[in-house]
Specification:
- The complex is a heterodimer of chains A (about 230) and B (about 290).
- In chain A, about 40% of the residues are buried.
- Chain A contains 8 helices and 10 strands.
- The longest helix of chain A is centred in the C-terminal third of the chain and has 16 residues, at about 170-185.
- With about 230 residues, chain A is α/β, with parallel strands linked by helices.
- Chain A is globular and about 45 Å long.
- In chain A, the strands form 2 sheets. In chain A, strands 6-7-8-3-9-10 form a 6-stranded mixed β-sheet, with helices on both faces.
- Chain A has 2 domains: about 1-80 and about 155-230, P-loop containing nucleotide triphosphate hydrolases (Rossmann fold, 3-Layer(aba) Sandwich); about 90-155, no CATH class.
- In chain B, about 70% of the residues lie in helices and about 10% in strands.
- Chain B is built from 10 helices and 4 strands.
- Chain B has helices at about 1-15, 15-50, 65-75, 90-100, 105-110, 130-140, 155-195, 200-205, 210-245, 260-289; strands spanning about 55-60, 80-90, 120-125, 145-150.
- Chain B has a 4-stranded antiparallel β-sheet with strand order 2-3-1-4.
- In chain B, α1 (about 1-15) crosses α9, α2 runs antiparallel to α7 and α9 (about 210-245) runs antiparallel to α10 (about 260-289).
- Chain B is elongated, with a radius of gyration of 30 Å.
- The chains are: A alpha/beta (about 230), B alpha+beta (about 290).
Chain lengths: ~230, ~290
């Protein structure tokens, strides 16, 4: 589903954001991407939804080669992904339902199906009663749920979440995390960047730890080693 | 299409101040251009009035038979440059001199013999009243055996040519400069709108909107602002025209305003400016985003 092979990413000012990063993420996985600020988590996220391109190496996401992706193909890739951010990125002058509908409209979805699809995802994230509310009328946790609903409305195979609980209190964090687990249980791949180690410890999901642009730990590699040892 | 229209109109509602600023900017840019246009068309009209006075007079030898004159008149009238030919007999010339040259009235009254020759007065068609064409027609007239002399005020026609060329060049350069300034100002105001909506654009990109989908509402918005700005500029131009015409104490009573087709042209130019400004600004924004 996702494959990074020997990926380097450097910026025009010479800063090296990623150094020889390689990993694969398969169908149905939930993967934590951890590390301190500046470790390279967000750069990996941006590579996944083709906001940036690698300087060297290969990035493949859902069948698309991000390295060689033509600009006109980027929207096609993004329609197969859901992306969630720490700051929610909702349009303040549109209601929760309108924010979600917007994601369908821009992809050219049929007008008569939009309302039903919006209500379906709002129900999925537990906010059907908040459909007419504007972002300013919602709590942080609720806003993030709306953002997740927007990410889900196109039925993506992969959900990329960059610090989705970074702005939330503990209760809201638990709620959003549980929602992401439920979504993953439905078969959607989740890649979640976080520096909240308590959250990582709560669940036994694969963890990739980044430090100074490199992968320093991948629990899947441990699993693989253990499997090799037991064999 | 409905979505496109809705999004374009929404931006007016979301940012009324900025939209008003954009429309006013377009209107004032076009107003300046329009005022210059008004000066240009009135100058051209004044020049046309002068041009109509361009005339070639071919003096006819005494004793030329009337049939010869008639045939030659038909021949000259068939020149492509010629609008009309009027034959003025010796008597008509004298009568006109007595009527128009008041100070010589007594001298003309006491004449025993009419000293004035008959002539053919040739007026040229619009577009042929420049020095080159006038000279060419004069040359052909000289070729008629019964033509004694040909006069057309060479210096005056050359000055007219010069004036026409200067007006054309200055008009083109100043018009172009005004248009360029208008495009830049409109581009800047649309860029302001874009910066204000940068977040929305980034979200559109994130959820998989194509660049053309993102451009669509901005282009329509630009075109609408151009349309409204163009209409407003016409209103301003008309107000300015009325004010100038009516307050000039009759000096400029003959001033003309734009023809309907020119007004449509100004509004369409506004639409084009709005579209171009949007296209350039959105394109740049999408490339750098």
């Amino acid at each position: 589903m996702i494959r990074l092979a020997h990926v380097d990413k450097s910026y025009p000012n010479g800063a090296l954001a990623l150094k020889d990063v390689s990993f694969r993420i398969g169908n149905g996985e939930f993967v934590f991407l951890t590390g301190h600020s500046g470790a390279g988590k967000s750069t990996i996220m941006k590579l996944l939804f083709a906001e940036q391109r690698p300087t060297h190496g290969e990035v493949r996401v859902s069948g698309y080669d991000v390295t060689t992706l033509r600009p006109v193909e980027i929207p096609k890739l993004r329609r197969r992904l859901g992306v969630v951010f720490q700051d929610f990125r909702l349009l303040e002058d549109r209601t929760a339902a309108e924010n979600i509908a917007f994601a369908l409209e821009v992809t050219g979805a049929r007008g008569d199906t939009i309302a039903a699809r919006v209500m379906r995802v709002l129900t999925q994230v537990g906010l059907s009663a908040k459909a007419p509310a504007y972002p300013r009328e919602l709590s942080g946790g609720e806003q993030q749920r709306v953002a997740i609903a927007r990410a889900l409305v196109n039925d993506p195979a992969i959900l990329v979440a960059d610090e989705p609980t970074g702005n939330l209190d503990e209760r809201a964090t638990r709620g959003v995390f549980q929602l992401l687990r439920d979504i993953n249980a439905g078969g959607t791949v989740i890649v979640m960047a976080t520096h909240d180690l308590d959250l990582v410890r709560q669940a036994n999901y694969r963890t990739i730890e980044m430090r100074e642009g490199s992968v320093v730990y991948d629990s899947a590699a441990d699993d693989l080693d253990e499997a090799e040892v037991s064999r | 299409m409905r979505l496109l229209t809705r999004e374009a109109l929404l931006s007016f509602r979301r940012a009324p101040l900025l939209s008003t600023l954009s429309i006013t900017t377009i209107a004032f840019s076009l107003f300046t251009l329009g005022l210059f246009g008004l000066v240009a068309i009135n100058l051209r009209e004044a020049l046309r009035g002068l041009e109509e006075r361009v005339e070639i007079v071919a003096f006819v030898l005494r004793g030329t038979p009337a049939e010869t004159i008639t045939l030659a008149t038909q021949d000259i009238a068939a020149f492509p440059e010629v609008q009309d030919v009027v034959y003025v007999t010796e008597e008509q010339a004298l009568a006109r001199a007595r009527r128009e040259l008041v100070e010589f009235r007594d001298a003309y009254r006491d004449l025993q013999v009419n000293p004035l020759p008959a002539s053919m007065e040739v007026r040229l068609r619009n577009g042929y009243r420049d020095a080159a064409h006038v000279e060419r027609v004069a040359q052909r007239l000289r070729g008629f055996g019964f033509v004694n002399d040909v006069r057309f005020g060479r210096e005056w026609v050359q000055k007219l040519d010069y004036l026409r060329n200067i007006t054309g060049i200055v008009g083109f350069v100043i018009g172009l400069a005004f248009a360029a300034v208008a495009v830049v100002i409109i581009g800047v105001t649309i860029r302001l709108t874009l910066l204000q909506r940068a977040r929305e654009i980034s979200i559109m990109r994130l959820v998989g909107a194509t660049n053309w989908f993102i451009r669509g509402p901005f282009l329509l918005e630009g075109a609408l602002k151009g349309l409204l700005g163009g209409l407003l500029s016409l209103v301003l131009c008309y107000a300015g025209y009325l004010l100038f015409r009516d307050r000039s104490g009759g000096t400029f009573a003959g001033l003309i305003f734009f023809q309907p087709v020119q007004m449509v042209g100004i509004v369409l130019f506004g639409v084009l400016l709005g579209l171009c400004g949007s296209l350039v600004s959105v394109g740049r924004h999408l490339r750098h985003a």
